[in-house]
Design brief:
single chain; 92 residues; mainly alpha
Length: 92
C-alpha cells in the first residue's frame, strides 16, 4: 500500500488532470449547446457560447497546469527514495 508512493502520486495527478479536462470540455460544450438553443436573447446567447469556449479551453489549461505541482511532488518523492537507497548502499 505504501510502496512506490511517488509513482502513485504521479498517476493520481494524471487521473485528476484528465478528469478536470473532461469536465471542462463537457461543461463548455453544454454551455455552447445552451447558447445555440435560443432560450435567451441574442446577446446572452453569444456570451453563453463564448463562456462555453472559455470554460472548455481555460478549464482544460488550468487542470493541466494544476497537475504540475502534484507530478513534481511525486517525482521529488521518487528521487528522494532513490538517493536514500544509494546512500545506504555506499555506507555514508
Amino acid at each position: 500500500m505504501f510502496s512506490n508512493i511517488g509513482g502513485k502520486i504521479k498517476v493520481t495527478a494524471k487521473v485528476f488532470c484528465w478528469i478536470g479536462i473532461i469536465v471542462s470540455v463537457v461543461g463548455g460544450l453544454g454551455m455552447i449547446v445552451a447558447g445555440f438553443s435560443g432560450m435567451w436573447t441574442q446577446a446572452a446567447s453569444i456570451v453563453t457560447i463564448l463562456g462555453g469556449v472559455g470554460t472548455a479551453l481555460l478549464g482544460s489549461l488550468l487542470s493541466w497546469v494544476g497537475s504540475f505541482v502534484m507530478v513534481g511532488f511525486g517525482e521529488l518523492i521518487e528521487n528522494t527514495a532513490e538517493i536514500a537507497a544509494n546512500t545506504r548502499k555506499s555506507g555514508y
